[in-house]
Write a structure and sequence with these properties.
Blueprint: H1 10-17, H2 23-34, E1 43-45, E2 64-68, E3 73-79, H3 86-99, E4 114-120, E5 131-134, E6 149-155, H4 159-165, H5 171-179, H6 183-192, H7 194-207, H8 210-248, H9 251-274, H10 279-287, H11 290-299, H12 306-309
Parallel strand pairs: 3-4, 4-6
Antiparallel strand pairs: 1-2, 2-3, 5-6
Length: 312
């Protein structure tokens, strides 16, 4: 069985790549993904600390933000589970980093490129491509609007398709590092590449740290509990809606019963994750139809705030 912690767990990912001692690993990963004209030689991690809510799954964001020597900002994040609104979330993260570079009255020319990298432990698109790069282009002749926006996605389930398409891609070794399921796989990677050897040694050190072990265990438990809560709530809403609908003997009654149950579930999930909701939010939930309430309920898992749940 595997003894090392899983770097696909977001709290382990953060501990591994935000650590100043592992800066060379972060630089290696970024060079592999971005393939810059000149290799990245140094960077500054902007958020090395863990947020207080790192293990409770209540909106915790465990990304790694870095600034390169030329001012370019990087946001690196691992997502283990698919959430509704993933693309919108990616754009939001980019926009937040980009716009917070300057304040009121500052020159727009001071803005530096911002790059987001999302490592996904699931397939997000119909494309077979493992490594996708998104920019803003003119749709006819593909002229680039600006070099300031760039979003990368690495879909780990498509790793071998990338290997067949581009076997020399430097990002493959990092994909295999994240995809490894046994310590034997990690050892083989370490023996074949010095960067992977350094990555395995860093992961070994982290895995031997009792505090890191406890954080990983707490995080896994919190994720499991929230997923279980959502699943049970959905089942209860379905059962309640069905029972109330049958009691009324009408399709309309069933739909209304299910919608009311979903409203109750949404209010409970918002309270569980964000610690309570305002009367204004409760009124909005009561006025909404079943489709709206269902969409908002799906967003609760990935939303970082109450307002994010209700974004159009």
């Amino acid at each position: 069985m595997r003894q090392t912690l899983d770097p696909k767990l977001d709290v382990v990912f953060k501990l591994l790549f935000a650590d100043e001692r592992n800066k060379a690993l972060l630089i290696s990963l970024l060079n592999a993904v971005l393939r810059p004209p000149s290799p990245i030689l140094d960077l500054v991690v902007l958020n090395p600390e863990l947020p207080k809510e790192a293990t409770d799954e209540r909106g915790a964001v465990l990304d790694v933000r870095a600034r390169l020597a030329d001012g370019t900002q990087i946001d690196l994040e691992l997502q283990a589970r698919h959430h509704p609104g993933l693309r919108e979330r990616e754009l939001f993260y980019w926009a937040r980093m980009y716009t917070t570079q300057i304040g009121r009255g500052d020159d727009y020319l001071e803005l530096k490129p911002t790059i987001c990298i999302f490592i996904l432990n699931f397939s997000d698109s119909d494309s077979p491509r493992f490594h996708s790069i998104f920019r803003v282009l003119e749709i006819h002749d593909h002229r680039e609007f600006s070099q300031d926006l760039e979003i990368h996605t690495l879909e780990l389930p498509k790793l071998e398709e990338e290997a067949a398409h581009d076997p020399d891609s430097p990002v493959l070794k990092w994909g295999r590092f994240f995809r490894a399921t046994t310590d034997e796989e990690l050892e083989k990677l370490a023996m074949a590449d010095p960067d992977m050897n350094a990555a395995k040694q860093a992961l070994d050190r982290l895995s031997a740290d009792p505090k890191a072990q406890q954080l990983a265990e707490d995080r896994e438990l919190a994720i499991w509990n929230l997923k279980r809560t959502v699943k049970l709530a959905e089942q209860q809403a379905e059962a309640r809606g069905k029972a109330e609908g049958e009691a009324r003997g009408k399709v309309r009654g069933k739909a209304e019963g299910k919608a009311e149950a979903l409203r109750d579930v949404l209010a409970k999930l918002l309270t569980l994750k964000f610690g309570g909701v305002s009367e204004e939010v409760r009124d909005r939930i009561q006025r909404a139809n079943e489709t709206e309430v269902s969409r908002w309920t799906e967003r609760v898992l990935s939303a970082s705030s109450v307002d994010a749940v209700f974004q159009n």
